[in-house]
Design goal:
With 613 residues, the chain is mainly beta. A seven-stranded antiparallel sheet has the order 39-40-1-46-45-42-43, with no helix packed on it. Strands 2, 4, 5, 7, 8 and 9 form a six-stranded mixed sheet that branches. The N and C termini lie close together (5 Å).
Amino acid sequence: MMIRKVCIYLFFSILIASDFIPEEDSILNYTQVFFKWPQMEDVDYYVLEIVDSLNESYLVHSQKNSIIVQDFIDWNNEYTWNVCGINNLEETSFCYQTIMLSINSLPDYYPNGNQLQLVNDGVYDGITLLDFDGLGFSVALDQASNPIWFADKNNFNPSKILVTQILDSGNFIGFGGGNGYEFDINSEILFETPSEYGVHHHFIKSDSTYFFLDTIIEQHPCPSNCPDNLPNLINWQGDHFFEIDSDGELIWEWNTFDYIDLVDYNPFYLDRLSLNYQDGDEMDWTHSNSIFYDNGNIFISVRNLSRILKIDYNTKDLIWHLGDEDFMNQIYFNNNIEFSQQHSVQILDNGNILFFDNHTFLEPEISRCIEFNYDEVVDSVNIVWEYILPDSLFSGSRGECDRLENGNTLINVGRTGNLIEVDSTNQIVWHYKMMNNNSPVPSYRAERINSLYPLAFSFELMDLKGSYIENYFIESIDTLHGYINNKGWANQLYEYHLFDDSESNIFSNNILIPGNSVSQFHIPLNELSIIENQQYTIRIIPLSNQNKFQDLKFNFENLFLGDLNQDSIVNVLDAILLVNLILDSSYLANGDINSDNILDILDLILTINIILG
């Protein structure tokens, strides 16, 4: 009698970088760290041990083969880490070898006087991503204001990087020194704007393209009330808005000179030009500071005209503008909102507009956040929420209001170096002050996120046997089942593929997994033309960042139960080998006749029965 069991073998190299994260000898600029390791057979949970340079140890349990750790890890330290699997008897099944890890020191330009002023109940949990504009770099802080990540400005030329956005891919968007960037958590640049463009005030990514602002200077007649010391023709500095793709190719552009009438100008900046005028100086006409794409429309903030514009993306036509009517040749709305020198116009999920009103040059000069809605049928606008800052927090420049998921609002008070969070009743629940050498550190923007990881994942296969060091196998060929562990906070769309040894894709599907959750996937092998002894690859691809795909390679092999020496015959030689395996407490799948995951006398009896026929 001959019994056959079909097993799938999965082969791995020792310590492949994508299998162990962080990889050997990593040097990091962050203390919130994602750990990932290969799956172990028949374990109930894993124990991750991290040991610092003083030999102090930190243990954390995980049901899955990945985890995000923030506690214990600190700046300017070296660590080792390893993982052990614990079975249902609370015994250690196996431990991986130790891996080295280093955390850099905080940079010497990190501000020395930051102060957490207040933390109250109701604060939105997470970490705060912000820029120290006055010092030229960006950081992430925990709720207690401890730094847990910094962007290494020395990786950028010139040495300045202000983060404006974190993507679902885990990459960051930012600008500095006239350039726009996309870069990873290690400050490695993935995209930089081509040299023919400049970037000021704002650089963002929408889907797969980049939007930003550049200055443009044209010579036009001096306005009718031109000061006597100015020539008839003067330089006007406007703004040129661009959209480019990842290859740097132009997709869309919009020029203030083409769509804003030159009679719309602020006399303050004409008077400023006349002060100490020299040939070649320009009037700072528009000085725009933000761009926002939403559902086929573009919203921009033109600071020096104290104006917000809505533009049709396809036609580039102006749909409406709102702001200081003293500088406005055409008025769109029947009523108005008084604001001045505003920053950071955003569209909320409810369709309302939220922005920071600096309120410069108005009486009194008191900055505030404004949320308003608008009706294009009856041409009206209406303030639905505002938060008025105390006069001590007036900011003549910069600033942002950011609506959080719990309804709170995070307010970056620009030039004052203050960052506050208010709840829906306008009570302050968190207050952080950026200081260096007893002076405020100006800042552009801030954002509250759950962690440094919108994308972080691992995956596991059900019924996995064997070991990472040698071979893995699964005792089934009908359907291959697995789990994707989405440890990041963003919803992620994953593709999963099966490739044959010629790298032809023989199966594909996808699955949308919510943030911080686990979902199962299936590959129906019985519906495919599987060839024995051919290598196959399972590939999991997060579509937000396809460079972070993970592979498993495997073969199909037919194994005869009891045929330990693989000579296609079960005889006394196999029985002798089985006795030796039992005495050594070793395991071999095709010796486990009764499939109870151990080799013992019962398997020997069954093997003898196979031999006797």
